[in-house]
């Protein structure tokens, strides 16, 4: 999905933060907005909360910031795209994607922009400069997926400087608008899960690179909780059952896309479809429901079916 831009050859940066919310804690969101307001020129909040809910975000909730209340849950991809389009209309040259519970370190935006400009000056085609997400079981940073001889490899922080990655999470990512105009925005039909991974793989296929900047930390929650995976150093995030539908469906849908390499598929699919799914079913409190949603997602993914998604 491409967008037309007003500023393709920018000289002065105008950064707009796009924050997607869903049943947010308004007090915590207000605090995050307060810290962010001095670091960006614009803030656009896109709310996926049903309008009937008491904690839905209305247009007058957080002046002077813009609020786009969708009224129903349209998914993370649709909401991000709505925010990106509005940021473009406001003249933004870059967007900073954030989740409602993500907190960027002080001066993080300036540091991300400085690294991005340095890389571009050195001739790099930069898709995104991303903060290093941390929190929970990974206080020094979440694992990163890097390229090693054409194959994905999982590495654990601490790391120094900026690290080129195959893909990263959307929250904490600073993306130039002119990259979005070439690569396109997020795929609405994925709804949630693998949205940021698909975009990163698509950008990489088109010759752009994503970087994680270790000097900028992003406090971020991943999943409802996490479980240590057997005797490894890895923790598996857990979610409600409807999310497992999207995870299994979307990972298989990605396998059908021409910009997703066979090496990524060969590395990723066994970990998700066989190891992760079996582990999560065995450790789930509701094994039958978890297994049913995973199997339904796998079936729809194999069939290339985007419909039939849960409405939660």
Structural commentary:
This protein has 312 residues and is of the alpha/beta class. The protein folds into two domains: 15-219, Alpha-Beta Complex (Spore Coat Polysaccharide Biosynthesis Protein SpsA, Chain A), CATH 3.90.550.10; 225-303, no CATH class. The protein contains eight helices and 13 strands. The longest helix has 22 residues, at 262-283. The mean pLDDT is 92.
CATH class placement of the largest domain: Alpha Beta
How many distinct beta strands? 13
Total domain units: 2
- Low-confidence segments, given as residue ranges, are none
**Main sheet specs:** 9 strands, mixed
Q: How many individual helices?
A: 8
SSE order: EHEEHEEHEEEEEHHEEEHHH
CATH superfamily of the largest domain: Spore Coat Polysaccharide Biosynthesis Protein SpsA, Chain A
CATH topology of the largest domain: Spore Coat Polysaccharide Biosynthesis Protein SpsA, Chain A
Category by helix and strand content: alpha/beta
Helix share bin: 25-40%
Short description:
The chain has helices at residues 26-37, 76-89, 108-121, 177-183, 195-205, 241-254, 262-283, 287-303, and strands at residues 15-21, 42-47, 66-69, 94-99, 103-104, 126-134, 144-148, 151-155, 162-165, 173-176, 209-219, 225-228, 235-238.
Keywords:
312 residues, alpha/beta, Spore Coat Polysaccharide Biosynthesis Protein SpsA, Chain A, 2 domains, nine-stranded mixed beta sheet, 8 helices
Strand and helix map with partners:
Layout lengths: L14 E7 L4 H12 L4 E6 L18 E4 L6 H14 L4 E6 L3 E2 L3 H14 L4 E9 L9 E5 L2 E5 L6 E4 L7 E4 H7 L11 H11 L3 E11 L5 E4 L6 E4 L2 H14 L7 H22 L3 H17 L9
Parallel strand pairs: 1-2, 1-4, 2-3, 6-11
Antiparallel strand pairs: 4-10, 5-11, 6-10, 7-8, 9-11, 12-13
Helix pairs in contact: 6-8, 7-8
